Amino acid sequence: MVHRMVEAMSQLQEEKARLQEELAALQERLALRDSDQQATSTQLQNQVENLKEKLISQAQEVSRLRSELGGTDLEKHRDLLMVENERLRQEMRRFEAELQELRAKPVAPCTGCEHSQESAQLRDKLSQLQLEVVENKGMLSELNLEVQQKTDRLAEVELRLKDCLAEKAQEEERLSRRLRDSHETIASLRAQSQPIKYVIKTVEVESSKTKQALSESQARNQHLQEQVAMQRQVLKEMEQQLQSSHQLTAQLRAQIAMYESELERAHGQMLEEMQSLEEDKNRAIEEAFARAQVEMKAVHENLAGVRTNLLTLQPALRTLTNDYNGLKRQVRGFPLLLQEALKSVKAEIGQAIEEVNSNNQELLRKYRRELQLRKKCHNELVRLKGNIRVIARVRPVTKEDGEGPEATNAVTFDADDDSIIHLLHKGKPVSFELDKVFSPRASQQDVFQEVQALITSCIDGFNVCIFAYGQTGAGKTYTMEGTPENPGINQRALQLLFSEVQEKASDWDYTITVSAAEIYNEVLRDLLGQEPQEKLEIRLCPDGSGQLYVPGLTEFRVQSVEDINKVFEFGHTNRTTEFTNLNEHSSRSHALLIVTVRGVDCSTGLRTTGKLNLVDLAGSERVGKSGAEGSRLREAQHINKSLSALGDVIAALRSRQGHVPFRNSKLTYLLQDSLSGDSKTLMVVQVRASAGQAGWPFVCRPWPAP
Ligand code: ADP
Ligand code: MG
User: Fold this and answer.
1) Which GO terms label this protein's molecular function in UniProt (predicted)?
2) Which of 451, 475, 560 is nearest to 514 (CA)?
3) Which CATH class is domain 389-576+587-700?
4) Whole-structure pTM value
5) Average pLDDT of the chain?
6) Who wins on pLDDT, 113 or 341?
């Protein structure tokens, strides 16, 4: 029993040892399995990584291909095709227009090379067009080739993509198969003993981890599949684009075919037209030829007629030859004849020139005589008016005359006679008769009108004196100088001289100069000189002409109103700086403006000199007896003396006395040559109209004797 038990024990122990061995083996296998699974897992992971990488590279490849074939490229291509299309269309339109033109052109009869030229042009054009068509065809085939290449590449890419997908499916298949194997192994292991169950459990636990990894990798796989689907989508789109571009190309091809057919049609029409033109041309040539033959015939006939005419003309020719020989002889003698004729013509011309010259001389003589006569007539006119004339100008009553009865008008005029003036002299009514009387209403222009003739006579070489005579405030300066707005005789005279001289400028060369001087207390001063204080002397000309002159008296040449204004201003400034009370001073001095007009007759060389003396005299009021003293008295005496000397000279001249006392005053001495001889003098007597001041402004006696 014991032995059996021992045996059973040892059996059990053996069994146990065997089982333990088996367990160890199983454990070993499990460990192996474990490591195997781990290896498989890492392998799977690696594979997944690989696939990922592949997918990325695939995606890159796809994007590269896409960019290569890219939408933009396709678009560009499409744009290019469209442009090309547009160009072709335009060309087509042009051809159509040309065709229209050709059709519209009337088939004119062919009259020569014009049509052949046109047809040659058309032929050229046609060959050009054909060339263009060939070119276009080449371009189209190129484009087709390109499209074909692109399509091939796309197919290649698709193929590669398909390979990848197949590979991936295989891999999946393999993995799932291995998963199934693992499951089976696990199930078989489960069927073994308890300890093995435990081992299985641990293996299951670990296997769950593996499952998780697997599911993750499956998820990743899913993701990759999605990406692949996306890529497919993109591929599809690209295919669509390619298809549309194919369609476009087909359309373009159809259009080109259409254009070609149109072109062919046009070509056919053109050929037909050319044919008809050629026929026309041939017809026209035939007609022309027939016409030419007819004409030729007529010409031949004419020629025969001409021949017969020629035969009859021969005798005439002979006579003509004779005539010609005669003429030849005459021509030989012609130079001699010509010389003679020239000689006689020259003589005639010389005679005519002489006659013209003498006529000219005669005319010049007559002209001079006429000039002289005109001068004489003018002189006579002035003389008839009187070489010494006296006119009066009445100053209107102004505010300066004050108010009341003193300021009333005390001067009256004769309504029928403008040479009579009535006024109150020392309270008694007195009347005077003068050459002319100007009422207060007379304007500066009215007064100037009266003296105008005198001034122009100065251009003819006469000396002229115009005096303004009268009491202070009677309007002497107003009449001579005037105001800037309403100038007096001085400025108007110079203006007149300028315009007259201008008018005669074609025949005469005139120069006008002015001097300004004053005589104060019997001393002569230059108003335009640099030293107005300097005393000037009056001397006889050293040339023995008996003329007087003032050495050192400044003379300015004037050519315009601006020049005169400058001269007047200069004189005025000189006077103002010299004398503090100019008004008072000027009423006690004589102011002279001496204008000299020198002229040369351009045709005769005749010279003339005329002098115009414009004198604003000192006030003629009587001061001598009112008890003035010192310098005032001296001034008054000088004024009285010089004015009465002037009165004496004028009286002597008027009564044509043998002796004229020029030397009694500086003024008369200075103006001697302008007062004597043919000279003309005008005295403007200024009169105040107001009752308080009115009166004949004479110093000693009524002058000139009325
Ligand atoms: P005189 O030179 O004789 O002393 P003015 O010429 O200076 O006198 O004249 C005295 C004033 O009378 C001036 O204010 C002047 O403008 C004015 N006068 C002179 N004559 C006329 C006239 N015809 N019309 C208007 N005003 C005049
Ligand atoms: Mg004055």
Assistant:
1) ATP binding; microtubule binding; microtubule motor activity
2) 560
3) alpha beta
4) 0.51
5) 83
6) 341
